[in-house]
Write a structure and sequence with these properties.
The complex is a heterodimer of chains A (126) and B (92). The N and C termini of chain A lie far apart (67 Å). With 126 residues, chain A is mostly helical. Chain A contains 5 helices and no strands. The relative contact order of chain A is 0.11. Chain B is mostly helical and 92 residues long. Chain B has one domain: Helix Hairpins. In chain B, 87% of the residues lie in helices and 0% in strands. In chain B, helix 1 packs antiparallel against helix 2 and helix 2 packs antiparallel against helix 3. Chain B is flat. The chains are: A mainly alpha (126), B mainly alpha (92).
């Protein structure tokens, strides 16, 4: 353990602690959803929404901690924040489109609609 | 008072490793290929968070570069895998 933790004032270490605990709990809940949810289109919400929020919490905690530890403004975690917040929706959209495409292709090949596991277009309204 | 912060850092490390184990379960068990790609992407994110938490624990800024590289590589590999699953080729 480094020596800097003992020198931090309380009003810095309390928000860092809260943000770290909150972020790690959110990440754990997201991974649990990835394992426990029954369908692929429900499972994708875990990483796409939940883990992005947890990443934001831990990145803010890291910014506050290093700013207090080095007594200067350390905000280069904003790079990772911007990158993750830009790429997480892109990745989620790509994987979802891949799943829809593959399921439609599989449904066209097998010609038996009605299964819950594969995606189907909603029925057209009259 | 300061031991609270070290406890929180240890808790963060534990939760991140547990999340990585859960992603590993989905990666090995996933019924379709897109489940495995999703689990691999989540595994990259959790590895990035693990690097950040280790940086806070040891108080060094070197782990930031590792986290940045992990995020970049994870994005590129997930996009390539998703494109390959959709089209059968990465670069058309």
């Amino acid at each position: 353990m480094n020596q800097g933790i003992e020198t931090l004032p309380v009003w810095v270490s309390l928000p860092v602690t809260a943000l770290l605990v909150l972020g790690s709990l959110i990440v754990l809940i997201g991974a649990l959803g990835l394992v426990r949810l029954p369908n692929f289109y429900q499972r994708i919400h875990g990483p796409a929404i939940t883990i992005t929020l947890g990443t934001g919490c831990i990145l803010i905690a890291s910014m506050v901690y290093f700013t207090a530890l080095q007594s200067r403004l350390v905000i280069h975690e904003l790079l990772i924040t911007a990158f993750v917040f830009l790429t997480a929706p892109v990745v989620a959209m790509l994987i979802m489109r891949t799943a829809v495409y593959r399921d439609l292709r599989a449904a066209k090949r097998s010609r038996e609609p009605g299964s819950d596991e594969i995606y189907q277009f909603p029925p057209r309204k009259k | 008072m300061m031991t609270l912060l070290s406890l929180a850092i240890d808790f963060t490390l534990l939760c991140t490793v547990l999340a990585m184990l859960l992603c590993m379960v989905r990666l090995l068990r996933g019924p379709a290929a897109q489940d495995r790609v999703l689990a691999l992407d989540t595994l990259w994110m959790c590895a990035m968070l693990l690097a950040l938490a280790l940086g806070i624990r040891f108080g060094s800024l070197i782990y930031f570069e590792a986290a940045m590289l992990i995020a970049l590589t994870g994005f590129v590999s997930t996009v390539a895998l998703a494109k390959f699953l959709m089209r059968g080729e990465v670069v058309e």
